[in-house]
Amino acid sequence: MPAETTFVIVGASLAGAKAAETLRAEGFDGRVVLLGAEPERPYERPPLSKGYLLGKDEKSSIYVHEEGWYTEHEVDLRLATPVRALDPAGRRVTTADGESVEYDRLLLTTGASPRRLKIPGNDLDGVLYLRTVTHCERLSAALAGGGQVVIAGAGWIGLEVAAAAREAGCAVTVIEPEPAALHRALGPELGQMFTELHREHGVEFRFGESVSEFRGSGQVSEVVTSSGAVVPANTVVVGIGAVPNTGLAADAGLDVGNGIVVDAALRTSDSSIYAAGDVANAYHPLLGRRVRVEHWANALNGGPAAARSMLGQDVSYDRVPYFFSDQYDLGMEAAGLPEPGSYDQVLYRGDRAAREFIAFWLRQGAVVAGMNVNVWDVSDDIQALIRSGRQVDAARLTDPDVPLTEV
Q1: Does 94 share its domain with 128?
Q2: Which residue segment(s) compose the domain that 380 sits in?
Q3: For residue 285, which of 134, 141, 318, 391 is within the disulfide window of CB 3.0 to 4.6 Å?
Q4: Residue 374 within any structural domain of the chain
Q5: 52 found inside a domain
Q6: What is the pLDDT, as a whole number, of residue 98?
Q7: 204, 223, 240: which is the final residue of a domain?
Q8: Pair 155, 186 in one domain
Q9: Range picked from 3-7, 144-148, 200-204 for highest mean pLDDT
Q10: Least confident among 50-54, 231-235, 266-270, 379-383
Q11: Are residues 135 and 226 in the same domain?
Q12: What's the CATH number where 198 sits?
């Protein structure tokens, strides 16, 4: 490409930063402009509900690159610079301060925002969300004070925060409309295991209930549930999912629907605009349908894939969705999307009672997802089984003496 070519990335996220890195690694010597709404340089989000939240990790550990990397690689990183509008016809973006930046190719890595609870008292102090560094630091300070923490939502964020809060010495109550933890993410079989894990560590659950009101005088002091129960709270953490940041794309006339709609090459409905990470609702060749994946690995791998696509390379982004979590003494990795309705059988290999096992979700005899719990160095093999799409021998799949590569 001509040296004067300009690639603009809107969203100084993990996906955006890795895209910029890939452009340079692939030899692109044109202009790269990376625009971020936050004042922080690109960082990774998993530590915000894990090590950094607990104060175990230094802040420097969360960043994607060292501070001088962007200058050294001639990436024009502009922080605290939200974008106000896109102009696909004129191939330009306009920042909030009115500056116009022209582009030849544009990548949107605008991520997602926490889903808000629109109920009475939602503006009280102590009602917190967790998405950004600022959110994390505010929550960390609240947990350090001990007290009573109520968490709305028993998803991944809610449970990781629950584990951190218990480690900080807080009393924790989790309120969840579904019948078990992680019900929508893992189904009832594995969701129940996480429920039991947290109960063993003193977490109280209120399943089949939702949050209907926050009460307090300036500072939250009580949470009212849909059943009318009143739960004391010094701190509330709302973890009920995230909403993709599609406003810029929608206003510019791009196709949107549960994210920015992109093809397998991460191209939007405009051939010069791409999207990756949490905001992208991408056609997945392996799964044969569109998926929007909010996990860390999708940002890590999707940004580079989009960068290569922008450079004109033949890209078909078909990574098996991957996620990891650490809660108390339980570490796990999950591959695939084991959502209720996507499988008809769950099989196990290993010791479930000791929580050292692998779970496999199958559909018509083929593995569609897997999760290794306190068992390591098997995720690649699990992903290979998913990718194969073939029917497997259940007896060999569940036999720990049979290598997964030979199932």
Answers
A1: no
A2: 329-406
A3: 318
A4: yes
A5: no
A6: 95
A7: 240
A8: yes
A9: 200-204
A10: 50-54
A11: yes
A12: 3.50.50.60
16 belongs to a structural domain: yes
Torsion-angle region of 321 (φ positive above 0: left; ψ -120 to 50: alpha; else: beta)? beta
> How far out from the chain centre does Cα 345 lie?
26
In CATH, what number is assigned to the domain containing residue 375? 3.30.390.30
Please indicate, yes or no, whether residues 146 and 40 belong to a single structural domain of this protein.
no
Please state, rounded to an integer, the average pLDDT across all residues of the chain: 96
> 394, exposed or middle or buried, with CB in 10 Å at 0-12, 13-18, 19+?
middle
Q: Which of 282, 310, 338 is the last residue of a domain?
A: 310
- The SS3 of residue 153 is coil
Tokens of 59: 């802040």
- For 192, the 3-state DSSP assignment is helix
How does residue 187 score in pLDDT terms, banded at 50, 70 and 90? confident
Asked if residue 145 and residue 93 are part of one domain, the reply reads no
What one-character DSSP code corresponds to residue 116?
P
What pLDDT, in 10s, does the model give residues 20-69? 999 999 999 999 999 999 999 999 999 999 899 988 999 999 999 999 99
- Percent residues over pLDDT 90 in the chain: 94
Q: By the 8 A CB rule, do 406 and 399 touch?
A: no
Q: Check if the beta carbon of residue 173 is closer than 8 Å to that of residue 154.
A: no
CA separation for the pair 332, 352 (Å, rounded)? 13
Handedness of CA 196, 197, 198, 202 (dihedral sign): positive
Q: How many helices (H) and strands (E) does the chain have?
A: 9, 26
Strand partners, 342: none
DSSP H helices in 229-284? 247-251
Please state, in angstroms and as integers, the Cα–Cα distance from residue 313 to each residue in 75, 171, 392, following that order. 21, 52, 35
Q: Structurally, how many domains does the chain consist of?
A: 3
DSSP for 100-152 reads: EEE-SEEEE---EEEPPP-STTTTSBTEE--SSHHHHHHHHHHHHT-SEEEEE
Residue 109: inside a domain: yes
Q: Do 129 and 234 share a domain, yes or no?
A: yes
Domain identity same for 135 and 216: yes
- Residue ranges with strand state E in 11-52: 31-35
Report the interhelical angle of 14-25 vs 296-310 (nearest 10°).
40
